[in-house]
Each structure stands twice: as structure tokens, then as C-alpha cells.
Amino acid sequence: MLSRMKLPGSAEKKSRPTVALTPMEKRLKQRAAFAANESTLVEDIVFELSLTKTIVSITFLLLVGASLATSYILSAHPECFGHQRKVNLENQILPGEVPMLRSGSALGSAESSIKKTEKMENMIEKHSLECTSEQMDSLKTQLPGTQCESSPWTQKCSFTLATTRGCQDPLWARQFFASTDLSSPFKALFVDYLPNDSPMSDFPIDALYLGSHNTDDKKYDIGAWRQAAKVDPACKKPVTLSGKKNSAQSVVMIKDEAAFNSATRIKSDLGLTDDDMWLEHVNTESNAMVRKFIAQKFPGDEPIHYLKVNGGYSFLASWFTTNNLSKAWYLEFTANWVGDWGSGDLGLLLKSLLPKSGFVCYWAGSDEKLWRITGCWQDHYAFKTWANVACVNSGKEETKPLLDKMEALFQKTLEAGNTY
Description:
45% of the residues lie in helices and 11% in strands. By secondary structure, the chain is of the alpha/beta class. Helix 9 links the parallel strand 2 and strand 3. Helix 2 packs across helix 3 and helix 6 packs parallel to helix 7.
């Protein structure tokens, strides 16, 4: 064994004889060992406290330095911080949203974002998004929630009665597009269109008439369309066209095969081309197919001037995970409680998602009645029932006159004092 081997020249150590300690000596030895350990422990604690104090001091100095540097930059270049705040506001990303790359230089994109944000803030400042106490009192009287908890099949909820009775004529939007000169061709998008649905039947042809400003083109004959669709006579009021002529196209997405065939026949009978009206048979419940189609028909930043959705909740909700919704100038949709609306969240849509995207929304009734939802929320608005909603994109300078008009109609509606 190695432990037993002797190295050359090494002398074997002799073990010292063991001396027995008295009890008193043992106690003294234990106390000495304890005192030595305690001294070492105290030294360790003192060292750790000293090190911690040093770290805290360095951190404090760094924070003070950063604060002084920030103050200097802010005083010398205040535009830097204002710029960053506005860019962050413009480029807010909702949960699940995929950021999209924008064309152009970073500086140009940032300047564009600042201008858009300032325009939105100016319009929001003019039309406060918070109802006054007087306006809320009127809304509580006109649109109470007493019947909204009952079954939606009864259709007794106040905002159902207010928005689904009488003629569905969004005259405010029709007059706006009939008199507004656009810098690009007019384009409308209709989702889940049904040609035999009387309130909706003539919207695609009516949009062509309004957006083109073309009174000489007989193919934009609303009466002929309705006759071919075999629906009731139109209840919409006539609108006078003004401004320069423009090219126009209605893009129509149809899920039902029979409805697609019917719309194709009517389009052919009226001599409309694909440039006038594009009909697409597509499963609007497939978000992937919808996004692909819209990207093809509305590439880049091409606007959707008029967007009308007759379909389910999933289509609207899916748009908040893309930048598609910012394309729309004006939006109409019908809420209900069947299909995917049953699992959808109307309150989230109206109270959060649409306002965060810059939209100001109203319950849309007949005879130009509008009740603002944005900033005027009542809890029973979240109940799932049948209702019509109209929204305007307040983030676009071009839609300012439409926002002004809708706000004026909102105030007029409150003053009328009708209850539902």
C-alpha cells in the first residue's frame, strides 16, 4: 500500500503520546473553538455588508447619472421623446397581432406615424369620446337594459328595437361618398352578401352608383338590380351625386353557393364586368382564406372605403390580428347571438377592440338615428342580441366630415327623446 511505503531519505515521524485533559481543560478548549468560529462568522457578515453597501452605492450613482442624462436630452431635444411616444401609440399591437413591415425609410415611416397620430388626437379632442352626464342620462332613458336579459328570440332589447325596425338606410355614409372626391378609385367590400336579403340586396350596386359619381351610366341602376333580385322596393332615400367622376368597384364575398349563383346571374343580366363588381365564392369562416383574398383585392395600403359585414363574429375579430382593419374608412356590421356570435364577445369588440383601432361606433337606427357607443358604454350593451352598428375611422383626415355628420345626428337623436 502507498500509505505504508517510505520515501528514500525520509524519517519516520513518531506520534506524540496522548495526554488526557481534565474536564475543566475540555470546557476551556471548547469555548476557545467557539469564540474562533464566532469571530470568523462576524468577519464574514461584515464583509458581505460592506460588499452590499458598495453595490447599492454604485447602483445609486448609475441611476442619478441616467436621470441627469435624460433630463439633459429632454431639455435639449424634446422632440425625441415626443416622437417615440407618438410612434408607440400609432404602432400599438394587440395580443396575437403580427407586426407588418412598412415600406420607405424608418424616418419617413416615423414621421407618417406622428402625423396620423396627431390627426387622430385632434379629431378625438373635438369629439370627446366620453359622453357627458347629460348624454348618459338620455341614453339610459332611450336605450334601457330592462328587457335585454330576456331571450334574444323575443327581440325586446332596447337597442334591438332601435336598430332593426324600419328602413335600414345609412344616409349619412351614402351622402358622404356621393359628394367626396377621392384620390384613388372607390372600393367597397361586402362580406357574406345575400342577394335575396331585402335590406342588404342593393348595397353593392348602390355603392357603385355613389362611389363613381356617374349619373350617365345606366348599368348602375338600383331599381333594375332589385327587380332582378326579386326583393321589395328600395326604401333608401335618393342621393344627389356631386364631384368628379371616379372608377368604382364592389368586391363581394359570398359563402352560400345558391346566393353566389344568384348574384352572378343578376350581375350578368345588368351587364356588369369584373371591374365593376367582383364576386367571390369563399368560405368566410376560414380566416386564412379571407385574409389571402383581401390581400389580393386590396394590396398594400389600398383603402376599403365602405365595408359592410353581414357575417359572423370571427371575421371581425380576426381582423384585429392584422393591419387590415386600418384600411377601412367606414364599417357596418350586424351583431346577433347565433353561429360564432354565440361564442364571441360583443362587449370586447365594441368597448375595446374597435376604439383601440380608432373607430367611433354607434347603434344605427332608421330615419338617421344614431346612438354613440364609444365613450358612452352601458353594461347591457354586451348582451348578445340582434342589432346594427355603424363605425367611422377617426384616424383618417378624409373621414372627418363623416365623423362630424354622425356626431351631429347623435346629438339630434338624443334631443328627439324617443324611448325603446
